[in-house]
Amino acid sequence: MAEPLRGKFQIILLTPRAKLLDVKAASVVVPAHDGQLGVLRNHSPLLTELGFGIMQVREISGRPDAFFIIEGGFIRVSENHATVLAYEVTTFEGKDKAQADKMLSQAQSAVAGKEYIRSQQHAMDLKRAKYIVQMAEMIQAPADVQQSG
Length: 149
Prior knowledge:
Elements: E1 9-14, E2 19-32, E3 35-40, E4 46-60, E5 66-78, E6 81-90, H1 97-112, H2 114-119, H3 123-148
Parallel strand pairs: 1-6
Antiparallel strand pairs: 1-2, 2-3, 2-4, 4-5, 5-6
C-alpha cells in the first residue's frame, strides 16, 4: 500500500557538483543567514540566503530522516517545493559505517583540541567538526528513543 503524501512536499538539495537529495518530506529546517528557518507544506513563497549549520529533513517518505551540514547558499520555497542550493555540504549520507566512523572520530579529535593544535586548522574547520559531532548525535537520538520504547 502506498504511503499517503498528505502533509508532505518536495525537497531538493543541490550543490555545484551534484543533486544530493530529491524527496517528499514533512519538514525541512535550514540554517538561514540570520537563524534557523523551518518550512512545512503550504509555506508562503520565499527566497533567502543560507548560513553555516545543519539542515534537517524530517519524515521522509520511505526512508529515515536526513541531516546535512550546509555552508552557505540559498533556499527557494514556492508551490510546495523547497529547493536548497548549497555551496558546500558535508553529510554521512552515502557513506558506509567505516567512513562515517572515521569522519566522526576526526571531528571529535578536532573538537577536543588534539588535531586542532597539531595541524593548526582554521576556525571554519573546527566549526564544521562541531557540526559533524552534533549531526551524529541528532542521527542517534531517534534510534535511542525507538529502542527504549
